[in-house]
Amino acid sequence: MSIDTATVARIARLARLPVDANAAPQIADELTRVLDLAGQLANAPLDGVVPMAHPQAQTLAWRADAVAEPDRANDLLALAPDARSGLYAVPKVLG
Amino acid sequence: MASSIAQLAQDLRARKISAAELAQAALARAGARSELNAFITLDEATALVAAQRADAALATANAPALAGIPFAHKDIFCTNGIRTTCASRMLENFVPPYDAGVVERLRDVHAVSIGKTNMDEFAMGSSNENSHFGAVKNPWDATRVPGGSSGGSAAAVAAGIVPFATGTDTGGSVRQPAAFCGITGLKPTYGRVSRWGMIAYASSLDCAGVLARSAQDCMYALSAMAGHDPRDATSVARGLDNYDAALSSKLSNMKIGVAREYFGAGVDAGVAAAVRDALAQYERLGATLVDISLPNAHLAIPAYYVIAPAEASSNLARYDGVRYGHRCADPQTLEDLYTRSRGEGFGAEVRRRILVGTYALSAGYYDAYYLRAQRARRVIANDFSEAFKQVDLIAGPTAPTVAFKLGEKTADPLAMYAADVNTVAVNLAGLPAISIPAGFSDGLPVGLQLIAPAFAEGPLLAAAHQFQLATDWHTRSPGA
Q1: What is the pLDDT of residues B402-426, one digit of tens each?
Q2: Would you tell me which residues 296-335 of chain B have a C-beta closer than 8 angstroms to some C-beta of chain A?
Q3: Measured between alpha carbons, how far is B322 from B99 in angstroms, rounded to an integer?
Q4: Where are the beta strands (DSSP E) in B327-473?
Q5: For a Cys staple, B101 with which of A91, B22, B194, B275, CB 3.0–4.6 Å?
Q6: For this structure, is B173 an active site residue?
Q7: Which residue range forms the structural domain that includes residue A15?
Q8: What is the count of structural domains for chain A?
Q9: d(Cα B357, Cα B351) in Å, to the nearest integer?
Q10: Which residue segment(s) compose the domain that B177 sits in?
Q11: Is the ipTM reported for this complex over the cut 0.90?
Q12: Is B255 inside any structural domain?
């Protein structure tokens, strides 16, 4: 599997990461090598094996449908790079 | 600080020393060894308040074992009011409004945290060279890496700054730095210790652990850290074993499987020889060695480097510059805010893993990469289950080499990933494992890894402790 710079640009867009055009060939090469490593799984006899998502065969725990957390909106908003009127502030989305 | 936790606890109770004095001494040592770069944040004020509380607790009967013992937290555990960076520019100024479950539990037993240790950014790395705050140096040789990602915790313990430190282990990040720094590192069973408030990298693999001088010291820390936490949905509701009582179990009748795959190509001869000598010591202590095979071990690195980046790409999507963390200057649009904030906030290895994970999860590739890696995970876990029908523990070298040179592998991500060849399978299967000092190769420490069935931390710690009663590798320390 060889990753080209167009694929790097597409993946970077999905991941919301910037890719400098000058760096793209090197990133493409590194991703190719990592995915070649993953490609070793292609030849392993794994067809029909049940995928394992998690180490413990657990079912999700149930809890009472009750408010357990205190209202800490102000503490959380205080962490924001920009917050106004009790809301997170971001650049204008609609023109 | 060469004293064991047991010795310090005794001295504290005999009033030979106070918790405040121990904390001040640890802070002074941390300051004196600043060239190691083991800490991101030292917090004297908070430590001294905690020490005073510990001294008050020690004046009463039945103070917990860790009361007054100084330690350090890996900077991945959220600490209320104390900056928690995950060694990333993204969280350089993040001050959590709450404590992680592990932080609460250690505070509740009056252990005294002196600060937050350096690490690979978001725990992604095997050398501690991926930190926004600079690389950590190995106390045994300042030109070498301490291992990663819990490299600051390992260096702080090995240099005698604190008797123990917390760490996290997603693919070997407690065990490998413990091996490289000549100390003991315990990764418990997945689900045994709460992940609540532990900044996520790969959630189905992430596991809180402990780095200390000995298995006995790890036991004290685990006894305080372990237990059910309903705030972590993967925390297991299961009673705690008495790990202290378990330590005295003898090794006679114990069968130790020696996995031939763990001595494969890439394992240095000096490392293999030290581990073989340690296994011979186990035989002298009454254990029986059994040659075993883990036939799918070769799939562990490929599976890990799909599953971990895939989960990371999802977990790290939360860092968008909106709610907390780094925001770029003067964003023009929402997309610009996301993209530039993430590009500026994340280092190269974090960006690489996010891209790999995004690719593996993207339309058309999910089955070929992520789902296939999960199938590999199943056969790797099954190998362990089969082996544990024959043996009680599985042994091998923790890492294929001793600590390598700073900069030696930074240009080649795949060479760095190979450092995890003997540790990642344990995370994929969710098992407990420990790395203990087992000798030296070229003057640098070698770690022996012991792996146990799920929730068998008691027998695992006992096997490590009995070895340490009979050997003195764990007592060796580097010169200042």
Answers
A1: 999 999 999 898 888 988 999 999 9
A2: 296, 298-299, 301-303, 305-306, 309, 313, 317, 320-327, 331-335
A3: 22
A4: 393-397, 433-441, 444-451
A5: B194
A6: yes
A7: 5-41
A8: 1
A9: 10
A10: 5-249+428-475
A11: yes
A12: no
